[in-house]
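Q: Hi! First time doing this. I have a protein sequence and I read that you can turn it into a structure. Is that right? Here it is:
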Amino acid sequence: MATTDKASPRDRLLDAAAQLFYREGVSIGVEALCRTAGVSKRSMYQLFDSKDEVLAATLEQRLPWYEARFAPAAPESVTPRERILYVFERLEKFSVDAEYHGCPYLAVLVELKNPEHPASAVARVAKERLQEVFRSQAERGGARDPELLARRLMLIYDGASARAGAHVERLDDGLATATAAALLDAAGVE
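A: Yes, that's right. Below is the predicted 3D structure, encoded as structure tokens:
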């Protein structure tokens, strides 16, 4: 059987969707999506029932990559405090890129405004998983109220991400990390 370096139509659609939805928003049309992917609309509809399904599949496929960007190479070698602050340090690093448009999962939730949309469900899971990282690390680090601390950290993360993504705030001064550190101090996380 011959092999080829060409990506499958499904993979091309998911890659194009990831780029377009992140850069342009979820309202991008099917024609633009198919044109960018080099796939016919007929092929898209043979692979997916709708553009909504493409968006959900794209978010699902990208989740491991997204989470890996915020995880230290050797998570067992860092303290809970360092693990939490690492997320904010990485956010600050990524936010200075001219192509940065904020957290793609938060953007989907904000743009869709429909909790029943299949992509909203995937995006909620992504946000819940990050909050669980914060909660579990806060608990390990001795926080007085790990659940409340995790919620507060999510507010900082999402707010910083949204403001940097809208290019109204620069995060390269360490403000997001310093704010998270102040919360960790107040909560007693070592």
